[in-house]
Structures are given as C-alpha cells and as structure tokens.
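Human: Here is a favour to ask of a fellow structure person. Comparing notes only helps if you start from a blank page. Give me a protein, with the fold worked out from its sequence. Please set it down just below, with no commentary around it:

Assistant:
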Amino acid sequence: MGVAGDRFRFRHVLPSQDREDCPLRYLLAAIALIPAAALAQPAKAPSTGPDSGVMGAQVLLDRLGFGPGVIDGRSGASYTQALKGYQEANGLKATGKLDAATQAKFDAYRGMPTVITIKLDEQILAGPFVGPIPKDEGDQAKLKTIGYSDVNEKLAERYHTTPATLAALNPEKPKLDPGSEIKVPNVIPAAREYSADLKPEWRDTLWTLNVGSDQPKAVKIVVDKSDSVLRVIGEGGKLIAQFPATMGSAKDPLPIGTWKIQGVAYNPPFHYNPKLFWDASSKDDKALLQPGPNGPVGVVWMDLNKAHYGIHGTPRPENIGKTESHGCIRLTNWDAARVAMMVKPGTPAIFQN
C-alpha cells in the first residue's frame, strides 16, 4: 500500500482547488495534520512506500531553499544535510533530525499541504520524448535533443521526485492525459514572474522545473567536500540556501581553492572531448551533444575560471551525493537552475575539504 488513504497524515488536496496554478493563500491554507509527537521524532520509511512525515519535511525544506534531493519520503544523507542546513540558518542546533526545536520553527507552515492534486494539461505533458537515452556519447550525439525519456520522467522532475514516488502517490494509476488529475509533491513556487530579459526557452525550463522567480541573491558559493553540499551565502555571511551535490572523485578530485563564476549557459549543448575523461574509450571521437535535461550537464552550466570545471545539472537526480563526478559540481536540474538564478558573473565559489 502506498501513502494514499488514512495512513497519509498530511492533507492531500487544496480546499476548492484542483489546479496547479493555485494562489499562494491556498498553498499556505492547509504542512498539516500530522501529530506533533510524530513530527518531533525522526520517521522511518516503511517498506511499503514513502513515509508521510519525512515527505512533509522534504517538501517544506525544498520550498524553503534547503534541498533534500529527490522528494521520496525516505530518510537519507541528503535529507539529514538539508535539516542541518535549515537548522544552522535558523540558529538551531544542527542535529540533522526533526527535533522539537525544528518542529517549532516548522509550525509557521502548518497550513501548507504536502501533496496536492493537479490537473494535467497539454503544456505539462508536452514532449518531445526520446525514449531510453543511449549510454554512448556518440549515439547521444545523433539525437536532435536529449530530452526526457517519457512523460513519467518529466513529471517526476517537474515535481522534484521519482517516478516510483509518483506511482505510490497515485496507486489508482490514472491516465496521463490532458484533464486527468494526479497527486504530486507540493513544490509549486509562489512566484513565477520570470524576467523578460531571460530567453523564452530558459523561462520555459524554469516553469517546467517549478523553480520560483523570487530567488535570493548570493554573495558567494561554498562547496564543502566533507558533507557533499553546496551552500549559498548571502549578505552578512548568512546561509540562505543549501543543496546536495556530487563533487569530484579519486581520479578527478574537487579543485580546492577560491574560484569565480564567469557566466551561465542555459540549456547548453555539450562538447564531448574523450581526451578530458580518463574513463573514455580510446575509440571515442569528439561529439556535439544537443541540449536537453538528460544531457551530461543537465539544463544549466555555471562556468568557473578553471578550465573545464563548472557547476551544472544532471540527468540522474536520484544519484546526487551518492556517486562520483569528473571533478565538477553536479546538482539536480531543479537545484542547479535555482542556483543559476542566485549567482552572477564574478560570484566567488569557494571549494573546501
């Protein structure tokens, strides 16, 4: 059994609303109805599906800018680090647990539902969908776009979750057609008034990824190898956002030092040069891979003043913080897009152990 039914302690549906573009007063109208005692203790994910307490905290942390990685209702390293980041930013003891002090801070958001019901439309369901992504870069270069494999993958990324979690939230298996209703994690931002200076394609990407237009501004970025997170520091040295990250490997270690963001490439193509990858086949040729969320650097590349290094997205959000990279800093596509809106050319990026 999934999280639907009386086991799901958070409120599912917005009152009198079934559309994704519901106003903020409704988004803040219902975190819910979970008992305080349950919130005060770390929840364990049952084997049968996502844990509602963990999912509620994940959704709220995501909305507040302390990314837990994919929202799946399961405890893990990224969830623990997200709690620690939120606690640090709010002057609490960084326990990494949903303790009483953190619960008290969360009380202000009790009106926010964890899961909402949305009505699918043609824009939400739009492709192109390219089927399974080839592993070989030469084969990827043959694709006109490295788009989503199918609509399930797109919906999962749009709502910062996984296809398996969406399936658990919708055990009745509704058809994914315009007019159908499905339950999704409530990550819809309060503001989507994107600047007219942004290219239409990038505004579409931000809309698709449910990235809000009202992001805070970074004074500097700090990437910490010790806990696999990227921290966004604002005025006065205050931690204003934090996201789980994959950074480097034994072969390509994180380049420790102080760098700067030189610029941002939105929906970039990828120039594959096998000479830059120690694990590339000697038979590989250079190739140009077209843009797309499933490309090697995802939807955005933040270029650093160190050749071939950057901060970027990923086609595999579920692996963030669990695998290695070729030295770059890899975030989920939605977190990378969010960071890209916080920085500007010249923003310092400090990489430390």
About this structure: The chain has two domains: 52-190, 220-351. The radius of gyration is 20 Å.
